[in-house]
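Q: A reviewer asked whether we had any structural model of the full assembly, not just the individual parts. We don't, so I'm hoping you can provide one. Inputs are below.
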Amino acid sequence: MTNWSPTILTRVMLGLAVFLSAFPLYWMLVIASRTNSDAVAVPPPLLPGGNLGQNIMAVLTHEDAKFLLGLTNSFIVAATVTVSVVIISTLAGFSFANLTFKGRNLLLVLVLLTMAVPLQQMGVVPLYRLMVTLEWTGTLKAVILPYLLNGFGVFLMTQYTRQAVPMELVEAARVDGAATLRIWWNVVLPAVRPGMAVLGINTFMLMWNDFMWPLIVLTPDNPTVQIAITSLNQRYSTEYSLIFAGTALSIIPLIAVFVAFGRQIVGGLMEGAVKA
Amino acid sequence: MSLDTLPRATRSAHRRDRPPGRRWRSRLDVKAMPYALVSPYFILFAAFGLFPLAFTLYYSLYDYDLAGTIEWAGLDNYTALLGDEDFWRAVVNTIGMFVLATVPQMILALFLANALNKRFRFRLAIRMSVLMPLVTSVVAVAVVFTQLFARDWGLVNWILSWFGVDALNWRAERIPSWIAIATMVDWRWTGYNAIIFLAGMQTIPRDLYEAAAIDGASRRRQFWQITLPMLRPTLIFVVLNSTIGGLTLFSEPTTFYNGNVDGGSQGQFQTVAMFIVKQGFREFDYGYAAAAAWLLFLLILIGAAINFLFVRRIGGTK
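A: Here is a predicted structure for the entire assembly that you could use as a starting point for your response.
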């Protein structure tokens, strides 16, 4: 096993990778904690300053930016989509993995096909017209509903359920007289919880980051956090310390989730990759 | 693993002798429930998948504008697109940025995964840090990189000035703007892809390497002759993923121009996705945007097919 220990080159490479991964985030902090004149100084400042709190307050209370509303909206959108997608995917995944019915394989192939189509880009015009017809433009409903469709989630939960819940277990419960929903609740759910966590974290991050569709269907009066940053950027494009404080705020919830669940995220990602 | 759930299931064993009146309900449960459980997904698919796709096709055959006038146009939108310089520029931009981003990204991710596969201290911490870029928000990071690539006070130009390079106007020129955007994409995805590759590498049996080492194969040779060919399924997954993501690139280049979908003063970094949004929601030419969406889909299919064939050949000697 000795030849699996890292060489100097490997160590340097890993160090560089960690540095490059962290640097833009560090840089965000540097500029977010500086005054605006520091941000455009040459040579650039390399250490954080003392204005972070002040800049964050400036962003949160900024009238045009609606930043607090943006954060709240993003949270509502991401949480709603995450909960719905996890439930829908777990139910469908259970059905595909553990139940037998006519047309199962065909339907599963259909799910796989939908994964390959970038629906949000492809169907953007009719989706927009639909939201106009329903008078939903500018509302969070318009952002939430199209994303409840998540083929990846169904696929992931099917794969996960297949290996976490053996058929014999389901059949034994069936013989004992448990109805399908009861089996799902008592047998399947406890076993697939780690898969649900991975899907949930994934979906939350995806939704928090969503940009193109909200840019089309929402207005700056009722933004998600990404739209709020964009309108700040459009109107005050050189007020870096203000904008950077905003970007830092938009990242904090994600970093918090990541630090709390880092081990599961890395583990789940690696497991999922091998199975897929 | 899931053995702990077994007792709970058997606990209800006493219910085996249920009254015959319930039998029809149980049959309905077995027959219909599987469909009921998958139905939420397929209802959503009909509403937000099938319907938009079908209507994109329908719109693309019409002249359809904001005023609501709809006139049959046949294939006019498509022929107009194929003769539209702006559209072709967007296609070239998209492919250019995709290649500039993906090629270095795959190579770096492979070497990084290989390094991460060694034994060292702080393993989880290091894996987490290379994954960190993925969990940051795209727009925020694009804002940061846009400032780093600023002409007059950006850190990148400042560092380049140490080597006597004159300040580059990253945003104004075509290739530099592609490089800046490709950097943002790579920063975000290299670590993620490395983790996926790492997962693939760990499924390769160790004895293969031990046998190769006994035969005197160098570690570099082992990488090319064992790791890479065995990694092919993972490579295909990652490359197809990057193809779809790269050809629908939108957030980074849009933020690079302060949230404007023009992609620079000359459209030098406007992608096809941005072109669609511009035609559909800035010019309100719905039919034209819909036709462009179908051409984008075609582009993705071609890109995916080419990359799939390319990756399948990697290490094909084995």
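A: Points you may want to mention in the reply: Chain A touches chain B through 116 residues (CB under 8 Å). Chain A has a mean pLDDT of 87.
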